[in-house]
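Blackboard transcription, Thursday session:
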Amino acid sequence: MTETLPGTATDPAAAPRDVVLDVRGLDVEYATGDDPVRACVDVSFTLHRGEILGVAGESGSGKSTLITALTRLQRPPAVTSAGQLLYHPRDGGPPVDLVTLSGRELRRLRWTTLSIVLQSAMDALNPVMRVGAQFVDALRTHDRRLDKGAAWERAAELLGMVGVSADRARAYPHELSGGMRQRASIALALACRPDLVVMDEPTTAVDVVMQRQILAQVLRLRRELGFAVVFVTHDLSLLLELADRVAIMYAGRIVELGTSASLYAEPRHPYTRGLRDSFPPLRAPLRRLTGITGSPPDLRRPPSGCPFHPRCGQRFDGCDERLPVLRDIGGNDVACHLYPEGS
Amino acid sequence: MATTLTSADQPATRTTAPRARRRWGFLARRLGFYAVAAAAAIVLNFLLPRLMPGDPSSAIVEELERVSGQQVPPETLESIRAIFGDPGQNLGEQFVSYLGQLAHLDLGVSIVNFPVPVSDLVWQALPWTLLLVGVTTVLAFVVGTGLGVLAGWKAGSRFDAVVTPLTTFLSSVPYFWVALLALWVFGFLLGWFPLSGGYDPNLTEGLNLPFLASVLHYGALPAMTIVFSAFGGWLLGMRNMMVTTVREDYVLLAQAKGLAPGRVMLRYAARNAMLPSFTGFAMALGGVVGGALLTEIVFSYPGIGYLMYEALQKRDYPMMQGVFLLITLAVLVANLVADSVYVLLDPRIREQG
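(Written on the board underneath:)
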């Protein structure tokens, strides 16, 4: 169980270099009362075709907000107040900014290019519709020529792809086990062959064995179908194994972004180091675990300067005054004053 | 690893045969329950007059003779004794003859309308009540629930901000007041609708066009007052369920799938949000047979409610007894239908039972 999952970060074929999503300066605010809470601040990253990008952070780091912003599913009072979500179509056409699309245009892109797997599959499937019917309506919405019978066949086929027997398409969600439901929602997310799947902690609600199976399946399907994944979780150890690159979020900002290998071997931001050191290594001698002292900041009143400075063991004069910007430090993007400009 | 995989798959893998058997078993259990409840209602109906102090049959016969001024015929006397008790007979024999009467749909003779049998009077009043209260109950549910879906789908929208407080206000207005006001304004002042009755008494009753038109004309005002007073409750209940349902993950996922907004609203949100409302609706349908007491009194509408009102006023015990039995059985039937349909609406219920 400790061997590397097949097709992980080390697999170069899995990550072709052309861009599928380009996130630029994304700001998300919760407009409540007089002072809006900025849950995502100046988030920028590029996602390549077939790449798995992990996003890790504590509760309240803005990762859930990022998910609904990326998928344009946010509800008031959350608003995307700035930034662009540039989607590059498969056929090489000009990029589309998801933020400015109309509802109708966005609906056309949904599921065919951009889909989502939610955290709890129990809650994500309509309890009064057969599982297959929930595939069929997505399939037939995006392909009007598909007739009912063919759509049901396709639903059964998709379920088979994740190891759920095809006759389960006629079942209701409550008739499936937790693991089956979660695999079914992954199959559902792939129904219309999207370029990008956003996954919101899809393995938190299942047991460890099922978790491994599901991750292995995601990697296999990614290899076969070539979709890119944004995988959001609080579990950095899982991401380091699964993802090609990992972004660490703190107080709504990306504080470090780099390949899994480099983040594991040589985390540069003190927060990343703290996260890495708070779980035991899988293939190295056991060492003393250290957590991160303090608690995440109140986003209504974020600390001045670097938002991490009140909890940082390596802070120095100036950390509480100037905001560090995300800069390329030896291959990784890091936002920390420990690495001065030009170093 | 392989064993864990199969064991994870096993519990939910069921063949269809036992599931079908479970479903029928479920239905059989339900039917059994309702049979017991109906039997209890019939037994209670039998026991109540017999538990009353004195001899209700003789009291009823005396009252009959006083009201009608003539001797009660022997077969009527026998029927009344069967239903209300003969002090000379033992309970077992009485129960058998009581059941015999019920089997012939004999509910006794009305005191007020002597010598018309209660069953004839009920039979006459029932279609009027079913028509008026049945149609308006369905209409109020459809209108209220429909508007509730819209208000709850976009809570805080302009539609919601106007309709919801207005409805709260309207549904707090007492019904009799609405009915009297409507009668006064539209019936008396404007003269658009007749003041009382269910049809034009100058026309021949039957399936002819002028008569049906007069039924609609006479029924319109009472119907509108019922719908007006009843839709608000459905609207508010549905709106509040919608507000919580639209926050469910499956609604979010339906939106993420790019389905048309109407489909997400109806098939995902409203379909789940209406489950509690539906139970209330089925109960309301059971109440239809009891009539709308206030409506029928205010508009002198010839339904069950008016019949019961008359019976209560003039202490027509056979009449009350008959109407109560009818209402009890109707509520039971409505509950049975509600239960059965609920099973179809919510697949999760089928597993239990």
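Lecturer's comment: Confidence is low (pLDDT under 50) at residues 7-16 of chain A.
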